[in-house]
Specification:
Helix content: 10-25%
Strand content: 35-45%
Structural class: alpha/beta
CATH topology of the largest domain: lpxc deacetylase, domain 1
Number of strands: 21
Number of helices: 6
Number of domains: 2
CATH superfamily of the largest domain: lpxc deacetylase, domain 2
Oligomer: single chain
Radius of gyration: 18 Å
Shape: globular
Order of helices and strands: EEEEEEEEHEHEEEEEEHEHEEHEEHE
CATH architecture of the largest domain: 2-Layer Sandwich
């Protein structure tokens, strides 16, 4: 499996979900072995698990005092499109939320084109199962010849339990995963804003559930679990390798994903990517 990058640069602009800041992002082609790296204020921030500094409501990466928040949707689109190397220049504190999904990112990368590069891509390959747990939450990685995700989401009513089983490839990602929007409950809005979060959130960029259901039209009946898969893929991009494995996630989130990836990367470096944490 060869490394890849974008054929052409792509620009996005919009508001950050949590900060409310207006931000512009330029995603540019990059050379082999560059990986996915953010650059802000002249500082490069590699998109790998070791540089995650917060996972409380979004995945935040940083180096020193320089951070970039809410990176998961953009990284998800890069991984889902198959891009291994890209420079992501950000002029603000947070990646734009756009419509709350990864569709705009995915469509733009598809239109820009992906080109193969003359070097093999790092792969996340397992010889034995790997398990990470946090109470009733878990993520399991199993040996496989393909990249497959099975996710169980369980939220209070009116969402409930949702399940998705899908293989990941660029076309399936673009049509079946990328359009799923970030979501929340109406009663959470004030609490989030009291914490200085969701300042840029509107019904145009987040799917909101009231007591009796979604306030907007759903794109799928199981849009919530599809978005959870979208977020998971964004976090899996922090492995710095293409996941050639079967991923089973049970009610997992950013914190558990990153903890698992830190251990996976440590074991990959040691040549023993298996076990449990």
């Amino acid at each position: 499996m060869k490394q890849t990058t974008l054929r052409d640069a792509v620009r996005f602009a919009g508001v950050g979900l949590h900060t409310g800041a207006q931000v512009t992002v330029d995603v540019r082609p990059a050379p082999v072995d560059f990986g996915l790296q953010f650059v802000r204020a002249g500082t490069y921030v590699p998109a790998i698990a070791e540089h995650v500094v917060d996972t409380s409501r979004a995945t935040v990466v940083g180096v020193g005092a320089v951070t970039v928040s809410t990176v998961e949707h953009l990284l998800s689109a890069l991984l889902g499109t198959g891009v291994a190397n890209a420079e992501i220049a950000v002029d603000g504190p947070e990646v734009p939320i756009v419509d709350g999904s990864a569709q705009a990112f995915s469509d733009a990368f598809h239109a820009a084109g992906v080109v193969e590069q003359p070097r093999e891509r790092a792969l996340l390959v397992l010889d034995e199962p790997f398990v990470a747990r946090d109470g009733e939450r878990a993520i399991v990685l199993l040996p496989s010849d393909a990249f497959r995700v099975r996710f169980v989401a369980d939220f209070p009513p009116p969402v409930g339990v949702q399940y998705l089983d899908t293989c990941i490839d660029p076309e399936r990602y673009r049509t079946e995963i990328a359009p799923a929007r970030t979501f929340g409950y109406l009663h959470e809005v004030e609490a989030l804003r009291a914490r200085g979060l969701a300042r840029g959130g509107t019904l145009e960029n987040a799917l909101v559930f009231g007591p009796h259901g979604a306030l907007q039209e759903l794109r799928w009946p199981d849009e919530v679990v599809r978005h959870k898969v979208l977020d998971l893929l964004g976090d899996l991009a922090l492995a710095g390798a293409w996941p050639r494995c079967d991923v089973i996630a049970l009610k997992s989130g950013h914190a558990l994903h990153v903890r698992a990836l830190l251990e996976m990367r440590r074991r990959m470096a040691a040549g023993v990517p298996a076990g449990s944490v």
